[in-house]
Write a structure and sequence with these properties.
With about 325 residues, the chain is of the alpha/beta class. It has 2 domains: about 1-240, P-loop containing nucleotide triphosphate hydrolases (Rossmann fold, 3-Layer(aba) Sandwich), CATH 3.40.50; about 255-330, 2-Layer Sandwich (Alpha-Beta Plaits), CATH 3.30.70. It has 11 helices and 14 strands. It has helices spanning about 45-50, 75-80, 100-110, 115-125, 145-155, 175-190, 200-205, 225-230, 235-240, 270-280, 310-320; strands at about 1-15, 15-30, 35, 60-65, 65-70, 85-90, 160-165, 195-200, 210-215, 220-225, 255-265, 280-295, 295-305, 325-330. The strands form 3 sheets. The chain has a 6-stranded mixed β-sheet with strand order 6-7-8-3-9-10, sandwiched between helices. A 4-stranded antiparallel β-sheet has the order 2-1-4-5, covered by helices on one side. A hairpin with a 2-residue loop joins strand 9 (about 210-215) and strand 10 (about 220-225). Helix 3 (about 100-110) runs parallel beside helix 5 (about 145-155). The chain is elongated, with a radius of gyration of 24 Å.
Length: about 325
């Protein structure tokens, strides 16, 4: 479990104070994959480095695996960090060492016996699909393979928490998907708690159970990914779903144009045909999309209802009674 309370970080530059984080609080539950989304300069890297105290916050509290980290002695902090693995955007591998040697490094630093290290390295390389690359040097690996080495090295001390600092931002889309699938598998197999930062919306949708949006050092919102994406008006919804391109066109006479977000079981129901049959209205589909978010699906529809005014009103009431959020886009005069 990770709990940050009232985290602020101020850097001093040339006699000026530059705030990087301002009163940020978030909680990551055990076994959860939690994403922090934000653009460059939002404070994401500073935030994740506050979790293992690579950056010490100016104010606030950091609680990880049941321990308050800020009050620990240097020795106790080193021991606590063994339970927190970290992977980086630019891999941070030793170019003069083989894949196996890179993975073994944190175990050697910890003073484990040579045979135990050899066994653990073999387990980790098998876990990330690189058993055949043990004696290869990083220069001969693809970007995705380098990141898998970084993941194996981060997992070497058997951490309960894995931090990911923009781990896929330098990878191509296909490689990104394979690394995300690996992280999800590791989360399930090992019960890892994963906190990742990213500016890639697809990473949050594919991997995260919960998410937070960070802007200019402040936490704008946080919650379950599916809940935030399903509710128009949330910042995550706005970032993921820009306005429909046809939303400003002319509305049919007597029509009512509406945008609808569907998730869970609603995403598989014949909403438009149900409206037509039950309320004797016509539902003209103008634009739509359907995508997978984790294990669920989220759909977006822009359609126009036409018919008798009372019938249209009842159709809209029906949608809201089903727990669906409707956004009025335009109404005919």
């Amino acid at each position: 479990m990770i709990e940050l309370r009232g985290i602020s970080k101020v850097y001093k530059q040339g006699g000026r104070e530059v705030p990087a984080l301002q009163d940020v609080s978030l909680r990551v539950e055990p076994g959860e994959v939690f994403g922090v989304l934000g653009q460059s300069g939002a404070g994401k890297s500073t935030l994740i480095r506050c979790v293992n105290l690579l950056e010490r916050p100016t104010e606030g509290r950091v609680r990880v695996n049941g321990q308050e980290l800020l009050g620990l002695s240097p020795e106790a902090l080193r021991k606590a960090r063994q339970g927190i693995g970290m992977i980086f955007q630019h891999f941070n591998l030793f170019s003069s060492q083989t894949v196996a040697q890179n993975v073994a490094y944190p175990l050697e630093v910890a003073g484990l016996p040579r045979e135990q290290i050899r066994t653990r390295v073999a387990e980790l390389l098998a876990l990330v699909g690189l058993s055949d690359k043990a004696e290869v040097y990083p220069a001969r690996l693809s970007g995705g393979q380098k990141q898998r080495v970084g993941i194996a090295r981060a997992l070497a001390p058997r951490p309960r928490i894995l931090l990911s600092d923009e781990a896929t931002s330098s990878l191509d889309p296909e490689t990104t998907r394979s690394v995300l699938a690996l992280l999800k598998d590791l989360n399930r197999q090992l019960g890892l708690t994963v906190l990742l930062i990213t500016h890639q919306m697809e990473v949050v949708k594919a991997l995260c159970d919960s998410a937070a949006v960070l802007e200019q050092g402040r936490l704008v919102e946080q919650g379950k990914v599916l809940d935030l994406l399903s509710r128009p008006g949330t910042r995550l919804h706005e970032l993921c779903y820009p306005p429909f391109s046809t939303g400003e066109g002319p509305v049919l006479r007597g029509g009512y144009r509406v945008a609808l977000t569907l998730s869970g079981e609603h995403s598989t129901r014949p909403i438009l045909s149900t409206l037509a049959r039950r309320f004797d209205v016509d539902a003209h589909l103008l634009e739509g999309s359907l995508e997978r978010v984790g294990e669920a699906r989220v759909g977006r529809l822009l359609f126009e209802l036409t018919g008798a005014p009372e019938a249209v009103r009842q159709a809209l009431v029906f949608l809201r009674e089903q727990g669906l959020t409707t956004e009025e886009a335009a109404r005919a005069a």
